[in-house]
Amino acid sequence: MDVIFLGIGVLVAVVLLIAITMLLVVGRLFRKVEQGRALIISKTKKVDVTFTGAVVLPVLHKAEYMDISVKTIEIRRTGREGLICQDNIRADIHISFFVRVNKTVEDVIKVAQAIGTETASDAAAIQDFFAAKFSEALKTVGKQLDFVDLYTKREEFRDRIIQVIGTDLNGYHLDDAAIDFLEQTPMTQLDNQNI
């Protein structure tokens, strides 16, 4: 009888030891993801994306975090670089655009493959990435409206800029835009050689 109890005791101890070891191993290999971030796991044959957490095997998987939270892109056109309106009045404008990576597996993978996780997480790099496109949209819409219309119909102006840019930007999504500053360029800052 004692041998049976001893055998069962050893078996239970071994099972408990294995269970505790497994919990410790999984605990060490589990990567938790903070809000506003995604974990991209490159496996041998496919790429997985998670927004909560996953077990990452050191040799078989490569794991990278990517910031998918809202980023602010500021465009400032002032002085000689001011926005030219339809009535050829030059306007100083500061506008902020708010972009983020869509919280979908497809869009996170699209952004990661296009610009990489480090670039996607760097606010300054995102500013550089979108500045030309957003500035061009601003100039396009600005040239379609008189200065008075820019000033009195700010919401329409903003909506038209967003329409020209579009909301889907290769995995990024344009949430909104805010006109922070809009004034006529002072005459002292204009170039006589450039109308």
How would you describe the overall organization of this protein?
The chain has 195 residues and is an alpha+beta fold. It folds into two domains: 2-67, no CATH class; 71-189, Band 7 domain (Tetrahydropterin Synthase, Chain A, 2-Layer Sandwich), CATH 3.30.479.30. It is built from six helices and ten strands, in the order αββββββββαααααββ. It has helices at residues 2-29, 105-115, 117-121, 123-142, 147-152, 154-165; strands at 30-32, 37-42, 47-50, 53-55, 62-67, 71-77, 83-84, 90-101, 168-169, 172-184. The strands form three sheets. Strands 6, 7, 8, 9 and 10 form a five-stranded antiparallel beta sheet that branches. A three-stranded antiparallel beta sheet has the order 3-2-5. It is rod-shaped and about 105 Å long. The model has no long low-confidence stretch (mean pLDDT 89).
Percent strand? 25-35%
The CATH topology label of the largest domain is: Tetrahydropterin Synthase, Chain A
Main structural class? alpha+beta
| Secondary structure: helix percent | 40-55%
CATH architecture of the largest domain: 2-Layer Sandwich
Uncertain residue ranges: none
Calculate the mean pLDDT score and round it: 89
Total of helices: 6
Distance between the termini: 105 Å
The CATH first-level class of the largest domain comes to Alpha Beta
Element string (H = helix, E = strand) = HEEEEEEEEHHHHHEE
Computed CA radius of gyration, to the nearest angstrom: 27 Å
- Overall number of domains: 2
Largest sheet: 5 strands, antiparallel
Tally the beta strands: 10
Can you identify the CATH superfamily of the largest domain?
A: Band 7 domain
Describe the global form. Answer: rod-shaped
